[in-house]
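Example 3.2
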Amino acid sequence: MKKGRITKLIGGLYTVQDDNRQEYVIKPLGIFRYKNISPKVGDIVDYTEDNITKVYERKNELYRPMISNVDQALLVNSAKKPNFSFLLLDKFLAMIEAFNIVPIIIVTKVDLMTEIELEDLKKKLSYYEQYFKVIYFSKVTKVGMNEILDITDHKVNVLAGQTGAGKSTLLNTIDPNLNLATNEISKALGRGKHTTRHVQIYEFGKGYIADTPGFSKLEFENFQSDQLKYYYPDFFQHSSKCKFHECNHIHEPGCEVKRLMNAGEILNIRYDNYVTIFQEILAIKPKYKRD
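Structure, written as tokens:
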């Protein structure tokens, strides 16, 4: 019996890699169907040369693409073209935190900014650096390349971020071996006709990488507004000092988060974005499924 990780699923056949990256293409035991166990890409499993025999408990799982045991999300935001958006950043951070995945903020295209513009952006993002890893990247100067490789080492990473932020360019610059795969990543991992038949995590340096089309839409339909505060680590650490135990940091009196924001200790734009997202979730009408 061996232990490994599922890296690919195509038409009911699973590719399992061992610690030496040796691959085995096998099927799960038939009894899994009766136990309602459906192995996913990313799962840690026991296997023989013919079958997957055991699926270990997952620490998290995503549904677009269908992968599990994700360590961190590379959250790609462009400095320019398109312009950096703190609202998009905060939306992505909340969504990623909700999935119990560690977010890594990557700012691309920094070479398109003037020194003054970049200094101003870094000053604002220094607040985020208290809670999240922030990496600045340029395909021109290669700044940030080694840092990204180091942080993804031996991790299962997912790729998320705004359209046009340079996700494919980042991947190809850091790992040229992905050149053929990048144009296919979106199709293979959730966009287009291959959604249910082809799911894969790609080798990336000494780790793995997957695209996450589910994050690109930034849909908060399954979120509860009163849960949003738990996905803001900077708010949560101060919430015990709020007057009300279940304070949502919106209109409640004696709110420690609002006090710190007014005192300049919590970034104003971060709080404003929180309120915007909170109101957006409130405005979503619940969808009722028919029996």
